[in-house]
Design brief:
heterodimer, A: about 500 residues, mainly alpha, 2 strands, B: about 475 residues, 20 helices
Chain lengths: ~500, ~475
Amino acid sequence: MMLAATIPTYTWSQAFADLGQIAPIATLTGFMLFAIVTDLVIPIKRRSGVVAMVAVVGLSYSLGTAVYRWLYATGGPAYSGMATGDNFALFFDILFAGLGILTVAISHSYLQKRGMREGEFHILMLAAVIGMMVLASATSLVTVFLGLELLSIALYVASGFARDDSRSQEAAAKYLLVGGFASAFVLYGMALIYGASGTTLLPDIAKQVSTLSPTNPLLILGVVLMGVGFAFKVSAAPFHMWTPDVYQGAPIPVTAFMSVGTKAAAFAMIVRVFAGGLPHLAPEWQALLAFVSATSMIVGNLTAISQSSLKRLLAYSGIAQAGYVLIGVIAGGKAGLAAVLYYLFVYMFMNFGAFAVVTLLAGPDGDRDRISDLSGLYKRNWPMAVLMTIFMLSLAGFPPTVGFFGKLFLFTAGVSAGYTWLVVVAVLMSVVSVYYYVRVLIPVWSTTTRAAEPLRASISSTSAIALSGVLSVVLGLYPTSLLIAAQLGAGPYSP
Amino acid sequence: MTLTSIWLLPLIGGVLIAFMPPRFAKWFGVLVALVTLGISAGVALAFAPGFHGYQFPEQVAWIPQLHVFYHLGVDGISIWLVVLNALLTVIAVLATPVTMKNVNRFIGLLLAMSAGMAGVFLAVDLVLFYVFWEAMLIPAYFLLWLFGEGERPGRAAIKFVLYTLAGSLLMLVGVIGEYVFTGQQTFDLAKLATIPPAAAVQFGLFFVFALAFAIKVPLFPFHGWLPDAYMAAPTPMLVIFAGVMGKTGAYGMLRILVPLFPNPVDWWDWRWVIPALAVAAIIWGALMAIAQRDMKLLVAYSSVSHMGFIVLGIFSYNIQGQQGAVLQMVNHGIIIPALFLFVAWIADRTGTRDRSALAGLASRMPVMAGVFTIVVLAALGLPGLNSFVGEFMTLLGAWERAPVLAVIGAVGLVLAPVYMLRMFQGAMYGEPAGPRPSGDIYAGQLALMAPLVILMFAIGIYPYALTQLMTSVAQVGLYR
């Protein structure tokens, strides 16, 4: 009905305007195709570096485009309302492009060390970034699903990238099966919402739903099914079972990328669909998400205590962190969503940084991710020990790192919106979290370990980790600019 | 910039020292600490008595979206704690042996911790206060863990951090609650003091703040972390750990609990709960001190007892009690480090801290015994020395509030000579027995003790020098 009205008037100028709205995605898609061709034509010996270079240039170009549009262009709906180039989308475009650059920076030396083929890896990362960007720009259920699948499929393959490692294969299979389930849940929920409202465009759904009774079973079931699927994707308890296994099995750069990117993309999707499409059902999905948030914080933090693998520990910590971020989504409004955007952005640096340090430990035979593998890190490479300390303290929420300020904003929004009980749960669980984050630091600074051989880090890895570490402190000491950006990004969903 | 330099200078100095060759670390650290002390003392001298408001204010918008300001200021209460912190930092750095392993890191962390505590006393904005409050835990944790004594210092360190965080993260809810529930959207302490939240909210917020401060002080029955942490803490760290960090909790009580929550009464009256716990701490700490044979532990428990007087004074809700409490914070900050230093020196010379294994040290270490006498007498509250005035004022305030509090609290004054003199007499006098000390204290150690002893006399004889500034406070709601 809506489509039929708009298609006949589609003109070239409209086509260019639409393309402009999704410029960061379009440029990155172009570079991904170029990277595929490069990978095919360049001789195998010189391939890896060139593809990495193409990926970095593409991501930088996309990042630049997003920043340019943020500063100088007006965002608006594109493709008959299927997608948008508003500030919310651009904020996430910048985040994902930045994350992509960081990932390429740490994975180059990792892949060489483990003797893996590099070309495909970077292309998969580009595909996943594109999927995330699509998700952040989606204003239609169809586009949401498109982005979700694009990102998921790329990551299914990437998780199994260590082809001779059975754990990596196991991770890929698990992720595929569980992820397929989650997608099916989301799709079923979407179908029900479509059935109730008669449209897939989110703004139109919002209009239609306002005329319906909130007790309409189609809507309730739709919200519940989508909520379950979304909770899978942000790895929130009680739908988190896949996370530790997949994080542990996948090659570390993939885990690092996934732990930040998938989470941020899924939160963008939750905000787009719930806050954007179903504001009239807010009490329903807020109740659902409040339950999921509390369970995630409790399960994630308590389970993380007993982990001996860093990847699993960070996986459970990620589950808990998803719980914290959900508080902001539930609180909503300008303060809540700005806090969510701020937290997701800084989470990129602290969580990615922690994984990146673990990446350095990897040997040719596989990842070394036991907590004891960090022992004597300050003797092997003291800047990395200092940076790891910053990441852990930031994840634990100590001032003056970004983790504290992120939590301050989230919790302030939560208390303002009347969710004091949820904030109290979060705070009590943060105490628990300090125990396991600090436990990671014990081998790092332990004085009793004998000196091991120095830990070498490539220039690109070092600069990626150092940048993450510096920003983990600077964005906390000076949070204003990023918070303004987050508020602008949250603009479309804050009255 | 004056007040900023008081916390920023030791922080920057500390970071530089941590990466400096160990042989320069101590003297550079002393230099940094001395300059900081100089600035702090300058601020105290330039302080205008009788001016009601924050002096030397510095205010910059920090997070405008949440109305958070980088806002520093001193008033008649905080100025003395800032000076005390700076003074004890100098002594702590001087007391650090240069032969210690990784001495540069140790001094760096020491200065960072001192910087955090200075920030707590200087902050006027509640978020800034919280930031310093939490940040000072990081160096404290690493100091306890990496340089701690005993079997498992890591365990003591994590116990301390988790105990403290359990309180202070709940306090974060309180900080946010003040912002939201007062309806004013401000974190400014002076402003918040004028707008108490609704009764039921006040009751809850008081609880979360009080818990954080009670753990930090520590107040009975929240002192579980203290014996382990004090036993693990190396002596130079203990100088500022016991001397200043406990005071941050008492300072928070005076600065936040009293003025911001004038009436925390719902189905329970918090205004009586805390003084009751304070009295319990006085008695419990003294009894535990009597039971100890390890002198370090004895002094640690005596500290619990003395902190009880401070809390009792604060919650007497009148001017004598609260001024006495501030005075007593300074006094305690002078006496406790001195006691710990003596215990460490005795242990260093004789190889044991067990008071029952030592006897007749006075004839073998005459200089040490002489100075130790003064410190012990100050600790048990002899008139003419500093502690007497403070304890007297707090008890006077408590009497005005409710005579029963003062009467039970005064039992602590009776118990103090029991544990102090028993330790002193047993170790110092009688037939020389036990391990033979390798010598008396050095002249350097005597010089280290000199400023503390001089202050014990000076404050004891002329406490008005301190209390005259204490009347100029910047918040309404204090002294009531």
